[in-house]
Automatic annotation (TrEMBL):
InterPro entries: Tellurite-R_TerY, VWF_A, vWFA_dom_sf
Boundaries of every VWFA domain copy: 20-205
Superkingdom of source: Bacteria
Xref: SMART domains: VWA
The protein, known as: VWA domain-containing protein
């Protein structure tokens, strides 16, 4: 209840339209070593970049969902000054991608309800999905997640960035989660470059008005994606 009161106070004190960003990350055992270290560093850099941009600082709200042999919210939705910097993540288990995406969408839904209840406008929510493999959780959960994403994206109620990490990433499955643009594969371990691009994209959206069509920096993809 205390957390909810803090969130409500934030919305009342800062009625700026919000950009909710749910980052859904694969923390299965195969992400051990350099991949998870670079991912953590990239997320923290993303926080710092949002913090330093005047428009994005007031508008962006971020949550992080991890999936391995289950799914868990490791960072509840929060404005940048309340985001906890990540010190470490311990990869383990398998790749329950469907469960992770469903939890991320549930978290986005709850956040949108909170905005509406407090009269705060919001931009089209973002889902960032990152994995180095293929799903091996419940098939029904995966199919449900794909259908939810497809419906939301098709109705322009969700912007999706599906990112494959390494040669083992199942790009065909990621394509199912990205109906409006092809998924992209990360160049090596260029997590920092990706999150730098993402922070600039969030800043660009936060400078517009809710409902506006905002063009992404496609030229900037070359800094982190295999094109």
């Amino acid at each position: 209840m205390a957390q909810l009161n803090i969130e409500t106070e934030d919305l009342v004190e800062n009625p700026t339209p919000r950009v909710p960003v749910a980052i859904c990350i694969d923390t299965s055992g195969s992400m051990s070593g350099d991949p998870i270290r670079e991912l953590v560093a990239g997320v923290n850099q993303f926080y710092d970049a949002i913090d330093e941009d005047d428009d994005a600082h007031d508008a962006a709200e971020v949550c992080i969902v991890e999936f391995n042999s289950g799914a868990k919210v490791i960072q509840e939705f929060a404005s940048v000054e309340r985001l906890q910097r990540i010190t470490t993540i311990a990869p383990t288990g398998r790749t329950y991608m469907g469960e992770g995406v469903n939890l991320a969408l549930d978290t986005l839904d709850a956040r949108k309800r909170l905005y509406s209840d407090n009269g705060v406008l919001y931009y089209q929510p973002w889902l960032v999905l990152m994995t180095d493999g293929g799903p091996n959780g419940d098939r029904a959960a995966l199919d449900r997640a794909v259908q939810r994403v497809t419906d939301l994206a098709g109705n322009k109620k969700l912007t999706v960035f599906a990112i494959g990490i390494g040669a083992g990433a199942d790009m065909d499955v990621l394509a199912r989660f990205s109906p409006t643009r092809p998924p992209l594969r990360l160049q090596g371990l260029h997590f920092k470059e990706f999150f730098e691009w993402l922070s600039k994209s969030v800043a660009r959206v936060s400078q517009s008005s809710p409902g506006d069509t905002v063009k992404l920096d496609l030229a900037g993809l070359a800094g982190w994606a295999e094109l």
